[in-house]
Every structure is written in structure tokens, then in C-alpha cells.
Amino acid sequence: MDPDKIDVGQHKKLRTFRKATQRRALTGSFTGAQELKQTLGRDLLREVRELKVKSRAGKRSLDEAYEVTELIRLHRRHNIAPEEYRRYRDEVFALQPRKAATGDPLQPGEVGPNGYRVGYTKDGDKVEWIPDDERPGEEWPLLLRRSDKAILAAHEEYWDKVWWNRHQNWLHRIRTGEEPLTEQQKPVLERAKRAARRIERKYGKKNLGWDDFEWGLVSGRLSALAWVTGAEWNESLDT
């Protein structure tokens, strides 16, 4: 966002409205009707799928409660002590607690939190394959962990965007005289301008530049991604 083109009064009203809305609803940003349509469609589809998973999980909980009740009755009928059952279970079946299904490599027979098989998508994301009620015989992937490729791509994107925004702030300080440009800085500025143009072509200039709230989200995302890729928290925003 070009600081010289900001209507301060309107921007203040926008920030006030955003803060009030955040307390009672989810908020976000979009650049056009098509992007809004895609975002709403994706989010609504995810919510419907998660509701289906929760519904099936609730049914399984009732079934498991019934099975546990029958097991307790059987133990009492045959005078089987809980300690005896646990010892027999551990020695014969060697049961292990179910893990979160987010580690690698994939273990044989590994299942996700909903009890379905775990695998990978063609992009390398680790997912739980959930049966699709609307398409018998088909499955849809419930994301458990993104691939390294996806994490690195996101880190590169937000690094570029944070750098671009800071470059715009530097240009603003130069134009206003707050930070006069020295002779030594002129070659650096030209290289920075070329880099900024590459970023604008890559992401589209309309998708760059944010208000304070959006800038906080972008910076936070970069910080988290930088930490995942090896940076310490105190250096995760050193761009």
C-alpha cells in the first residue's frame, strides 16, 4: 500500500470496523469477487467435511461405549480383575498408544485420529483418507501435516512479501526526506527496485501491501515458517 495515497480518515474507520468485527466473526481479505467466491467455497466445503467426520466420530463413540460396557459385564461375570486383564493384554497383544499420525516414515497399518488409513497425496502432504459419503468407494484427504515442499514454498512467498513491504517503507522514507539517500546507497536502491519488480510480477502488485492488521498476520506467518525451517524465534523476522 502506497502511504502517500492513504485516506487517513477512511483508513481509521476501516481499522475501527475491523476491530469491532473481529470480536464476533472471522475476518479476512480478498482482491475481487472471484477470490471471495473461491475462499468461501473452500472454507464451506471444509466445514461440511469436518462436520461429517465429527458425526461419524460421535457414532463410533456410542459404539465404543457399548463395547466397553459389555466388556465390564463380561469381566465381572468371570471374576477377571482389571490388573489381570491389563497384564494379559500387554503380554499377548503388545498394544501401543495411538500416535498423532504426523511423524515419518509412514508406519504399516497406521491410522489417523478418525480411525482411517493414513497416506500421502501426490504433493507429499500426509493425510488421513476419509470415505466420501457422497461418492461411494471414493475418499477425500484430511490434512495431517503439510509436505516440506509446501512449507518451503510458503516460507519463500512470505519472505518475498515481507521484504517487498519493507522496501516500500524505505522508498517512502526517502521521498519524505526522513532518510536521505547517500551515494553509497544508490546502487543498492537500484538492485532493490529490480527485486521489487520481480516480486510484483510474481504475485501481482494488487496482492501486495497491507494495513496494520493484515501486516501483523503476514509477519506472524513468516515468523512461524522461519522457525519451522530452522531459525530461532528471536531471528525469525530478520529480513
Explain this structure:
- The chain has three domains: 32-95; 98-145, no CATH class; 149-235, no CATH class.
- Helix 4 (148-176) crosses helix 5 and helix 4 (148-176) packs across helix 6 (212-228).
- A hairpin with a 7-residue loop joins strand 2 and strand 3 (139-145).
- Strands 1-2-3 form a three-stranded antiparallel β-sheet, with no helix packed on it.
- The protein contains six helices and three strands; from the N terminus they run αααβββααα.
- By secondary structure, it is mainly alpha-helical.
Summed up, what is this model?
The protein has 239 residues and is mainly α.
Topology:
Blueprint: H1 8-22, H2 33-77, H3 82-93, E1 118-120, E2 126-131, E3 139-145, H4 148-176, H5 185-203, H6 212-228
Antiparallel strand pairs: 1-2, 2-3
Helix pairs in contact: 4-5, 4-6
